[in-house]
Amino acid sequence: MARVLVTGGSGFLGSLLVRRLLDDGHSVTSVDLLPATFAAPNFTPVVGDIRDRALLDRHVPGHEAVFHCAALLAHGTIKPRELWASNVEGTRVLAQATAASGIRSLVYISSNCLWARGFDRPVREDDEPAPCEIYGQSKLEGERILAAHAGDFATTIIRSPTIIDEGRLGLLAILFDFIREGRRVWLVGEGSNRYQFIYAKDLIAAMLLAWRQTASGVFGIGADDVGSMRETFQHVIAHAGTGARTAHLPLKPTLLAMRAAHALRVSPLGPYHYRMIAESFVFDTSRIKAGLGWQPTLTNGDMLLAAYRYYVANRAEIAARRDVSAHRQAANMGVIRVLKWVS
């Protein structure tokens, strides 16, 4: 079996990937700013920064592949300069270390944040990226850095929408609290926009296919049969049985209020979330299906329901978590707490 390296192995996606690789019999090294959340045979967690070339030169050689999942997110207390340095310079240093070590394959998780607007059709790989905020800009720059190493190793870039699975929290924990307490779940506008998610295990399956096939290329990924946001929320509400129900806020005034709250730093919602809440974004997944032989297994509603049930069953343990990644803890509600009081 192979030796593989995962950056961000303590994060939400990274930790699931590490467990899958170990289950498949591989030896795994993780490099992350945070300590690992578990220990296992054949697993070597390294607490460190991917910008540290000396650290990478000690740990990267001897691996067959690199899965680059590490990224700082544009919320919380992270400063833009730090986010850019970690996501961009970290990718640059990692690419250099990968090339120097003679590794043949690197799989990079990019984002649908490469676009600042919604689309009325599926988004293709050849659509020109146009990010509006620093996280999307950093991901695009990471793609460019890796493209410059085309002669050194095969790079698979997978552009991912919001990743959902059991244990995914962050801003979703706010939605789950509204449902659990039987409150009104607010939609901005009519909730008719279609916003695609990806099941974490389906994304991991695509990453493993890309590695095994040493597939260079750019692929959009996401669930099939994407319903409206209203239908997705109602699917969870129907199975929760808490008396929660959807309600509507006027589109334009609500978006103006969200932007003002973000500017005042009293809301966890940023420009990326405005699109998810009010606009449509669905990747055309025909290329990844044809190129890698990949297929999704869960719809938006089913994966969100699995994440909700995990949250309800593990609330006490979640509240006690410390020193975990942003997606493995509940986000601060901020001004949304006012909306909860009137719901």
From TrEMBL:
Residues 4-217 form the NAD-dependent epimerase/dehydratase domain. InterPro entries: Epimerase_deHydtase (IPR001509), Lipid_A_modif_metabolic_enz (IPR050177), NAD(P)-bd_dom_sf (IPR036291). SUPFAM superfamilies: NAD(P)-binding Rossmann-fold domains. Signal peptide: none annotated. This is NAD-dependent epimerase/dehydratase family protein. The lineage of its organism: Bacteria, Pseudomonadati, Pseudomonadota, Alphaproteobacteria, Hyphomicrobiales.
